[in-house]
Amino acid sequence: MNRRDALRILLASLAASSGGLPHPAYGQTRIRRLVFVTGAPERNLGEWIKGFREGMKDLGYQEGRNITLDYRYGGVSRELTNQLVADAVASKPDAIILQAGSVHAAAAMTKTIPLIAIYSGDLVDGGLVKSLANPGRNITGIQLMALDLVGKRIQILKEIVPSVKRLAVFASPNHPGVHGERDASIAAAKKLGLSVAYYPVNDLQELEAGLAAARAAGADALVAFPDGVTNTGRERIAAFALQHRLPTVSGWDVYADAGGLVTYGPNMRASYRHLASYVDRVLKGADPATLPIELPTIFELIVNQKTARALGVKIPQAVLLRADRVIE
Protein backbone atom coordinates (compact mmCIF):
# COMPACT_ATOMS: atom_id res chain seq x y z
CA MET A 1 0.00 0.00 0.00
CA ASN A 2 1.46 3.36 -1.02
CA ARG A 3 1.28 6.53 1.09
CA ARG A 4 -1.55 8.05 -0.98
CA ASP A 5 -3.78 4.99 -0.45
CA ALA A 6 -2.97 4.95 3.24
CA LEU A 7 -3.90 8.63 3.59
CA ARG A 8 -7.17 8.05 1.71
CA ILE A 9 -8.09 5.19 4.07
CA LEU A 10 -7.22 7.32 7.10
CA LEU A 11 -9.40 10.22 5.92
CA ALA A 12 -12.28 7.86 5.18
CA SER A 13 -11.98 6.39 8.66
CA LEU A 14 -12.00 9.84 10.26
CA ALA A 15 -15.05 10.88 8.25
CA ALA A 16 -16.91 7.75 9.27
CA SER A 17 -16.10 8.22 12.95
CA SER A 18 -17.43 11.82 12.81
CA GLY A 19 -20.71 10.93 11.14
CA GLY A 20 -19.43 11.65 7.66
CA LEU A 21 -18.69 15.36 8.33
CA PRO A 22 -15.32 16.71 7.24
CA HIS A 23 -12.97 17.59 10.08
CA PRO A 24 -12.05 21.30 10.42
CA ALA A 25 -8.39 20.36 10.16
CA TYR A 26 -9.00 19.24 6.61
CA GLY A 27 -10.26 22.50 5.11
CA GLN A 28 -13.52 23.42 6.80
CA THR A 29 -13.56 27.05 8.05
CA ARG A 30 -14.85 27.39 11.59
CA ILE A 31 -17.82 29.72 11.68
CA ARG A 32 -17.30 32.42 14.31
CA ARG A 33 -20.35 33.46 16.31
CA LEU A 34 -21.00 37.14 16.98
CA VAL A 35 -23.88 38.92 18.71
CA PHE A 36 -24.67 42.64 18.30
CA VAL A 37 -26.71 44.01 21.22
CA THR A 38 -28.02 47.53 21.61
CA GLY A 39 -30.38 49.27 23.97
CA ALA A 40 -31.55 51.48 21.09
CA PRO A 41 -34.47 50.73 18.78
CA GLU A 42 -33.61 49.39 15.34
CA ARG A 43 -34.80 52.57 13.60
CA ASN A 44 -32.00 54.55 15.29
CA LEU A 45 -29.26 52.47 13.72
CA GLY A 46 -30.32 51.57 10.19
CA GLU A 47 -27.63 53.26 8.09
CA TRP A 48 -24.99 52.79 10.77
CA ILE A 49 -25.50 49.03 10.82
CA LYS A 50 -25.14 49.01 7.04
CA GLY A 51 -21.73 50.61 7.53
CA PHE A 52 -20.73 47.92 10.01
CA ARG A 53 -21.81 45.17 7.64
CA GLU A 54 -19.85 46.79 4.82
CA GLY A 55 -16.77 46.90 7.04
CA MET A 56 -17.11 43.21 7.88
CA LYS A 57 -17.53 42.32 4.22
CA ASP A 58 -14.46 44.36 3.27
CA LEU A 59 -12.45 42.30 5.75
CA GLY A 60 -13.59 39.02 4.20
CA TYR A 61 -16.43 38.09 6.54
CA GLN A 62 -19.64 36.72 5.09
CA GLU A 63 -22.63 35.96 7.25
CA GLY A 64 -23.46 32.28 6.97
CA ARG A 65 -20.07 31.37 5.49
CA ASN A 66 -17.46 32.25 8.12
CA ILE A 67 -19.50 34.19 10.71
CA THR A 68 -22.96 34.26 12.18
CA LEU A 69 -24.12 37.69 13.33
CA ASP A 70 -27.19 37.93 15.53
CA TYR A 71 -28.65 41.43 15.97
CA ARG A 72 -30.66 42.10 19.12
CA TYR A 73 -32.38 45.46 19.59
CA GLY A 74 -33.78 46.86 22.82
CA GLY A 75 -35.39 50.28 22.85
CA VAL A 76 -38.39 49.37 25.01
CA SER A 77 -36.89 49.27 28.48
CA ARG A 78 -33.66 48.81 30.36
CA GLU A 79 -34.97 45.48 31.61
CA LEU A 80 -35.38 44.22 28.04
CA THR A 81 -31.89 45.38 27.12
CA ASN A 82 -30.43 43.64 30.15
CA GLN A 83 -32.24 40.43 29.20
CA LEU A 84 -30.92 40.64 25.63
CA VAL A 85 -27.40 41.04 27.00
CA ALA A 86 -27.86 38.16 29.43
CA ASP A 87 -29.05 35.91 26.58
CA ALA A 88 -26.07 36.95 24.47
CA VAL A 89 -23.60 36.21 27.27
CA ALA A 90 -25.25 32.84 27.96
CA SER A 91 -24.84 31.85 24.31
CA LYS A 92 -21.03 32.19 24.71
CA PRO A 93 -20.23 33.75 21.34
CA ASP A 94 -16.73 34.54 20.11
CA ALA A 95 -17.41 38.25 20.73
CA ILE A 96 -20.26 40.61 21.57
CA ILE A 97 -20.61 43.97 19.77
CA LEU A 98 -22.33 46.56 21.93
CA GLN A 99 -23.93 49.98 21.63
CA ALA A 100 -25.71 52.30 24.06
CA GLY A 101 -26.66 51.02 27.53
CA SER A 102 -25.93 47.43 26.62
CA VAL A 103 -22.21 48.11 27.22
CA HIS A 104 -22.71 48.58 30.96
CA ALA A 105 -24.92 45.51 31.24
CA ALA A 106 -22.43 43.30 29.41
CA ALA A 107 -19.49 44.59 31.46
CA ALA A 108 -21.30 43.51 34.62
CA MET A 109 -22.12 40.05 33.26
CA THR A 110 -18.87 38.80 31.76
CA LYS A 111 -15.17 39.31 32.31
CA THR A 112 -14.07 36.80 29.67
CA ILE A 113 -16.06 37.22 26.45
CA PRO A 114 -14.50 39.97 24.29
CA LEU A 115 -16.74 43.05 24.26
CA ILE A 116 -16.40 45.44 21.34
CA ALA A 117 -18.17 48.73 22.00
CA ILE A 118 -19.13 51.80 20.03
CA TYR A 119 -19.93 54.20 22.84
CA SER A 120 -21.48 57.65 22.79
CA GLY A 121 -20.19 58.68 26.21
CA ASP A 122 -16.87 58.62 28.04
CA LEU A 123 -15.75 55.03 28.68
CA VAL A 124 -13.32 56.04 31.42
CA ASP A 125 -15.85 58.30 33.16
CA GLY A 126 -18.35 55.45 32.94
CA GLY A 127 -15.94 53.13 34.80
CA LEU A 128 -15.82 50.70 31.90
CA VAL A 129 -12.08 50.90 31.13
CA LYS A 130 -8.94 52.10 32.89
CA SER A 131 -7.86 54.32 30.01
CA LEU A 132 -8.41 54.66 26.28
CA ALA A 133 -4.82 53.67 25.57
CA ASN A 134 -4.91 50.63 27.84
CA PRO A 135 -8.47 49.44 28.56
CA GLY A 136 -7.29 46.89 31.11
CA ARG A 137 -10.25 44.54 30.77
CA ASN A 138 -12.31 42.71 28.15
CA ILE A 139 -13.67 45.89 26.50
CA THR A 140 -12.32 47.79 23.50
CA GLY A 141 -13.73 49.68 20.53
CA ILE A 142 -14.61 53.26 19.57
CA GLN A 143 -15.56 56.19 21.79
CA LEU A 144 -17.66 58.77 19.94
CA MET A 145 -17.43 61.53 22.55
CA ALA A 146 -14.73 64.14 21.90
CA LEU A 147 -15.04 67.37 23.85
CA ASP A 148 -13.40 69.55 21.20
CA LEU A 149 -16.43 68.92 18.98
CA VAL A 150 -18.76 70.61 21.47
CA GLY A 151 -17.30 74.08 20.97
CA LYS A 152 -17.16 73.68 17.20
CA ARG A 153 -20.89 72.90 17.07
CA ILE A 154 -21.73 76.09 18.93
CA GLN A 155 -19.39 78.09 16.70
CA ILE A 156 -21.12 76.73 13.59
CA LEU A 157 -24.55 77.55 15.03
CA LYS A 158 -23.43 81.11 15.78
CA GLU A 159 -21.97 81.43 12.27
CA ILE A 160 -25.29 80.38 10.75
CA VAL A 161 -27.47 82.49 13.06
CA PRO A 162 -25.39 85.43 14.37
CA SER A 163 -28.38 86.80 16.29
CA VAL A 164 -28.40 83.85 18.72
CA LYS A 165 -27.86 84.91 22.34
CA ARG A 166 -29.39 82.28 24.66
CA LEU A 167 -28.75 78.57 24.28
CA ALA A 168 -30.81 75.78 25.84
CA VAL A 169 -28.79 72.58 26.21
CA PHE A 170 -30.56 69.22 26.53
CA ALA A 171 -28.78 66.10 27.75
CA SER A 172 -29.20 62.95 29.77
CA PRO A 173 -27.65 63.60 33.21
CA ASN A 174 -26.65 59.93 33.48
CA HIS A 175 -24.65 59.90 30.26
CA PRO A 176 -20.99 59.28 31.21
CA GLY A 177 -18.93 62.35 30.38
CA VAL A 178 -21.91 64.71 30.25
CA HIS A 179 -20.33 67.01 32.84
CA GLY A 180 -17.39 67.51 30.48
CA GLU A 181 -19.70 68.28 27.56
CA ARG A 182 -21.65 70.72 29.69
CA ASP A 183 -18.53 72.55 30.87
CA ALA A 184 -17.13 72.67 27.33
CA SER A 185 -20.43 74.10 26.07
CA ILE A 186 -20.48 76.82 28.71
CA ALA A 187 -16.86 77.75 27.97
CA ALA A 188 -17.42 77.87 24.20
CA ALA A 189 -20.63 79.87 24.58
CA LYS A 190 -18.98 82.37 26.93
CA LYS A 191 -16.26 83.09 24.34
CA LEU A 192 -18.99 83.88 21.82
CA GLY A 193 -20.96 86.05 24.25
CA LEU A 194 -23.77 83.52 24.67
CA SER A 195 -25.60 82.39 27.79
CA VAL A 196 -26.38 78.73 28.45
CA ALA A 197 -29.27 77.11 30.31
CA TYR A 198 -28.79 73.41 30.95
CA TYR A 199 -31.79 71.05 30.99
CA PRO A 200 -31.07 67.51 32.24
CA VAL A 201 -33.65 65.08 30.82
CA ASN A 202 -33.93 61.45 31.87
CA ASP A 203 -36.73 60.45 29.50
CA LEU A 204 -39.10 61.77 26.85
CA GLN A 205 -41.51 63.17 29.42
CA GLU A 206 -38.74 65.27 30.98
CA LEU A 207 -37.59 66.28 27.49
CA GLU A 208 -41.07 67.61 26.75
CA ALA A 209 -41.10 69.58 30.00
CA GLY A 210 -37.58 70.87 29.35
CA LEU A 211 -38.48 72.15 25.90
CA ALA A 212 -41.43 74.05 27.31
CA ALA A 213 -39.29 75.50 30.10
CA ALA A 214 -36.59 76.58 27.67
CA ARG A 215 -39.13 78.35 25.50
CA ALA A 216 -40.64 80.11 28.50
CA ALA A 217 -37.17 81.22 29.60
CA GLY A 218 -36.51 82.89 26.26
CA ALA A 219 -34.06 80.46 24.66
CA ASP A 220 -33.42 81.34 21.02
CA ALA A 221 -31.51 78.17 20.02
CA LEU A 222 -31.35 74.53 21.12
CA VAL A 223 -28.35 72.26 21.59
CA ALA A 224 -28.92 68.51 21.92
CA PHE A 225 -26.02 66.46 23.20
CA PRO A 226 -26.00 63.17 21.27
CA ASP A 227 -27.17 60.54 23.76
CA GLY A 228 -29.89 57.93 24.13
CA VAL A 229 -32.61 60.28 25.38
CA THR A 230 -32.20 63.08 22.84
CA ASN A 231 -31.64 60.59 20.01
CA THR A 232 -34.91 58.84 20.80
CA GLY A 233 -36.62 62.24 21.04
CA ARG A 234 -34.91 63.85 18.06
CA GLU A 235 -38.08 64.16 15.97
CA ARG A 236 -39.86 65.86 18.87
CA ILE A 237 -36.96 68.30 19.36
CA ALA A 238 -36.99 69.15 15.65
CA ALA A 239 -40.77 69.60 15.56
CA PHE A 240 -40.74 71.84 18.65
CA ALA A 241 -37.87 73.90 17.23
CA LEU A 242 -39.66 74.34 13.93
CA GLN A 243 -42.91 75.32 15.64
CA HIS A 244 -41.17 78.01 17.69
CA ARG A 245 -38.61 78.99 15.02
CA LEU A 246 -35.58 77.89 17.03
CA PRO A 247 -32.37 76.80 15.28
CA THR A 248 -30.85 73.55 16.61
CA VAL A 249 -27.47 71.89 16.56
CA SER A 250 -26.36 68.40 17.55
CA GLY A 251 -23.65 65.87 16.84
CA TRP A 252 -25.01 63.00 14.72
CA ASP A 253 -26.47 62.85 11.22
CA VAL A 254 -29.81 61.43 12.37
CA TYR A 255 -30.66 64.67 14.18
CA ALA A 256 -30.43 66.61 10.91
CA ASP A 257 -32.32 63.88 9.08
CA ALA A 258 -35.07 64.24 11.70
CA GLY A 259 -35.39 67.95 10.93
CA GLY A 260 -32.67 69.61 13.00
CA LEU A 261 -30.96 72.60 11.40
CA VAL A 262 -27.34 71.48 11.57
CA THR A 263 -25.14 68.71 12.94
CA TYR A 264 -21.39 68.39 13.27
CA GLY A 265 -19.62 65.34 14.61
CA PRO A 266 -18.38 61.86 13.81
CA ASN A 267 -19.36 60.33 10.51
CA MET A 268 -21.43 57.62 12.14
CA ARG A 269 -21.56 55.26 9.19
CA ALA A 270 -17.77 55.46 8.85
CA SER A 271 -17.35 54.90 12.59
CA TYR A 272 -19.50 51.77 12.49
CA ARG A 273 -17.63 50.60 9.42
CA HIS A 274 -14.33 51.03 11.27
CA LEU A 275 -15.74 49.09 14.23
CA ALA A 276 -15.49 46.00 12.05
CA SER A 277 -11.69 46.26 12.22
CA TYR A 278 -11.90 45.71 16.00
CA VAL A 279 -14.00 42.60 15.49
CA ASP A 280 -11.45 41.36 12.97
CA ARG A 281 -8.50 41.91 15.31
CA VAL A 282 -10.23 40.24 18.24
CA LEU A 283 -11.22 37.23 16.15
CA LYS A 284 -7.58 36.95 15.10
CA GLY A 285 -6.45 36.81 18.71
CA ALA A 286 -5.96 40.40 19.88
CA ASP A 287 -6.60 40.96 23.60
CA PRO A 288 -9.25 43.66 24.19
CA ALA A 289 -7.50 44.62 27.42
CA THR A 290 -4.48 45.90 25.47
CA LEU A 291 -6.23 47.05 22.28
CA PRO A 292 -6.40 50.88 22.46
CA ILE A 293 -9.80 52.53 22.13
CA GLU A 294 -10.01 55.02 19.29
CA LEU A 295 -11.77 58.33 18.87
CA PRO A 296 -13.40 59.19 15.53
CA THR A 297 -11.16 60.55 12.79
CA ILE A 298 -13.77 61.19 10.09
CA PHE A 299 -16.22 64.01 10.75
CA GLU A 300 -19.13 65.48 8.85
CA LEU A 301 -21.09 68.71 8.73
CA ILE A 302 -24.72 68.28 7.70
CA VAL A 303 -27.05 71.19 6.98
CA ASN A 304 -30.81 70.83 6.65
CA GLN A 305 -31.62 73.46 4.06
CA LYS A 306 -35.31 72.55 4.14
CA THR A 307 -35.44 73.38 7.85
CA ALA A 308 -33.45 76.56 7.29
CA ARG A 309 -36.02 77.82 4.79
CA ALA A 310 -38.86 76.98 7.19
CA LEU A 311 -37.10 78.92 9.96
CA GLY A 312 -36.31 81.86 7.69
CA VAL A 313 -32.58 81.26 8.17
CA LYS A 314 -30.17 81.89 5.31
CA ILE A 315 -27.26 79.46 5.49
CA PRO A 316 -24.00 81.32 4.72
CA GLN A 317 -22.30 80.19 1.55
CA ALA A 318 -19.12 79.49 3.52
CA VAL A 319 -21.02 76.91 5.61
CA LEU A 320 -22.68 75.32 2.57
CA LEU A 321 -19.29 74.92 0.90
CA ARG A 322 -17.94 73.14 3.99
CA ALA A 323 -20.99 70.89 4.37
CA ASP A 324 -20.53 67.21 3.63
CA ARG A 325 -24.24 66.89 2.97
CA VAL A 326 -27.07 69.36 2.42
CA ILE A 327 -30.61 68.10 3.00
CA GLU A 328 -32.95 69.73 0.50
What are its keywords?
alpha/beta; five-stranded parallel sheet; 12 strands; about 40% helix
Topology of helices and strands:
Layout: H1 3-17, E1 32-38, H2 46-58, E2 67-73, H3 78-90, E3 95-99, H4 102-109, E4 115-119, E5 139-143, H5 148-160, E6 166-171, H6 178-191, E7 195-200, H7 204-216, E8 221-224, H8 228-232, H9 234-243, E9 248-250, H10 253-257, E10 262-266, H11 268-283, E11 299-304, H12 305-311, H13 317-322, E12 325-327
Parallel strand pairs: 1-2, 1-3, 3-4, 4-5, 6-7, 6-8, 8-9, 9-10, 11-12
Antiparallel strand pairs: 10-11
Helix pairs in contact: 2-11, 3-4, 5-6
Q: Could you characterize what this model shows?
A:
The chain is α/β, with parallel strands linked by helices and 328 residues long. The chain has 2 domains: 28-144 and 268-290, Response regulator (Rossmann fold); 148-266 and 299-327, Rossmann fold (3-Layer(aba) Sandwich). The protein contains 13 helices and 12 strands. The strands form 2 sheets. It has a 7-stranded mixed β-sheet with strand order 7-6-8-9-10-11-12, sandwiched between helices. β1, α2 and β2 (67-73) form a beta-alpha-beta unit. α2 crosses α11, α3 crosses α4 (102-109) and α5 packs across α6 (178-191).
* Succession of helices and strands: HEHEHEHEEHEHEHEHHEHEHEHHE
Low-confidence stretches: 9-27
Number of helical segments?
Answer: 13
Computed structural class: alpha/beta
The name of the CATH superfamily of the largest domain reads Response regulator
How many DSSP E strands? 12
